[in-house]
Amino acid sequence: RRQRQRFVDKNGRCNVQHGNLGGESSRYLSDLFTTLVDLKWRWNLLIFLLTYTVAWLVMASMWWGIAYLRGDLHRVHDETYSPCVANVYNFPSAFLFFIETEATIGYGHRYITERCPEGIVLFLFQSLLGSIVDAFLIGCMFIKMSQPKKRAETLMFSHAAVVSQRDGKLCLMFRVGNLRNSHMVSAQIRCKLIKSRQTPEGEFLPLDQCELDVGFGTGADQLFLVSPLTICHEINSKSPFFCLSQRSLRSEQFEIVVILEGIVETTGMTCQARTSYTEDEVLWGHRFLPVMSLEDGFFRVDYSQFHATFEVPTPPYSVKE
Prior knowledge:
Blueprint (H helix, E strand, L loop, with lengths): L25 H5 L1 H7 L2 H30 L20 H12 L14 H29 L9 E3 L3 E6 L2 E10 L5 E15 L5 E9 L9 E2 L5 E6 L20 E10 L5 E9 L3 E3 L1 E3 L3 E3 L4 E3 L7 E3 L10
Parallel strand pairs: 2-10
Antiparallel strand pairs: 1-3, 2-3, 3-7, 4-5, 4-6, 4-8, 8-9, 11-14, 12-13
Helix pairs in contact: 2-5, 3-4, 3-5
């Protein structure tokens, strides 16, 4: 079957782009911190370098301007004259004085004197501005580095979903697993069915979202994810797959979006992993191979069989039939 456009990729990336925002694009600037965090790393590093470079050059120019307006640059060798900043006689020396002050290095060769009120005011302004810039940019970089997006890459989903019987009931199932030894605290899983439909009033909904019950009432959606688990959606009269049969599956067009959320045990931050299954990734009459085995004093998980399935006898009819 020809591969069609997915709403959510297998790696969890949502294929949605926002365009023609018009005046609403200003909302990104009103929340500048989140906008910077959401940018890609190359843009973050570029903004980081440009901001500090521009700030350094501007502040160094202000120190050089004070020395130029006071005439300090022309009286460098006058030992009886008290300049605003000692040993600042050109732009490079003014730049070095700013860097030494900003970084609190203090070599002692360049220093501000008490006979320069404008220099004292500029020094206070520099301290406040430097603290604000450091807090904003370093905070942005810290938040971006500590985001648990990479943790989601160690959460696995089976390549395909299966439909077979469990406990005498027809069920849609898929498998999830955690590759790390650290746990996902309060892990919860949800499923959304993305399918176009037309209302009785004639309105066409291209991407209508419907919730799939994966154990809300019984608590089965709360996962203890220390070993691979098979998530089960019972197909009954309340399920949107009530009329789904093996034959109708070939002509259906839908997408099942799976969302796994939990708290990373080591950092305490919330992590979300996503994937999706289209109709051609749902295998009728299959079951997942076991991956757990008992070794000498522990249980072993064989992830080489994580995605493997095998055929089992399953009625080709829908639950309604």
